[in-house]
Amino acid sequence: xxxxxxxxxxxxxxxxxxxxxxxxxxxxxxxxxxxxxxxxxxxxxxxxxxxxxxxxxxxxxxxxxxxxxxxxxxxxxxxxxxxxxxxxxxxxxxxxxxxxxxxxxxxxxxxxxxxxxxxxxxxxxxxxxxxxxxxxxxxxxxxxxxxxxxxxxxxxxxx
Length: 159
Known about the structure:
Helix 3 packs parallel to helix 4 (about 95-110). Helix 2 (about 30-45) links the parallel strand 1 and strand 2. The protein contains 6 helices and 4 strands. About 50% of the residues lie in helices and about 20% in strands. The chain has helices spanning about 5-10, 30-45, 65-75, 95-110, 125-130, 140-155, and strands at about 20-25, 50-55, 80-85, 115-120. By secondary structure, it is α/β, with parallel strands linked by helices. Strands 2-1-3-4 form a 4-stranded parallel β-sheet, with helices on both faces.
């Protein structure tokens, strides 16, 4: 019998993880699709619903603050940020993309847990919809990255 491919991609310490997810409500159709796949991937990897903490913020600019507050209040093993920034008709696109990326980078450099950047940056809303509807979208990829980072940290502690 061949090994289960899903189980094979789930890190060893997944069932011990607690994961915070901060979701931007801007382009909620996209964000909710990312959230659904993130939660599904976490569940596939053995993370209990009671160990998944979800909160919403108005837009992408609020994601870093929401992620920081999630880490302080809920004390998860990792925090995933999910959202969508669309360039089409958005004169602040570059500023928002840079702000979110710099905010998540800052959190990663100054915190004891990983923060995972799961924000789509696309040219058009249709492009974002296509990415969000993919079988393994950025939500699922971010969930797996969070679990792999938690596993990496556990391995370092036990090194």
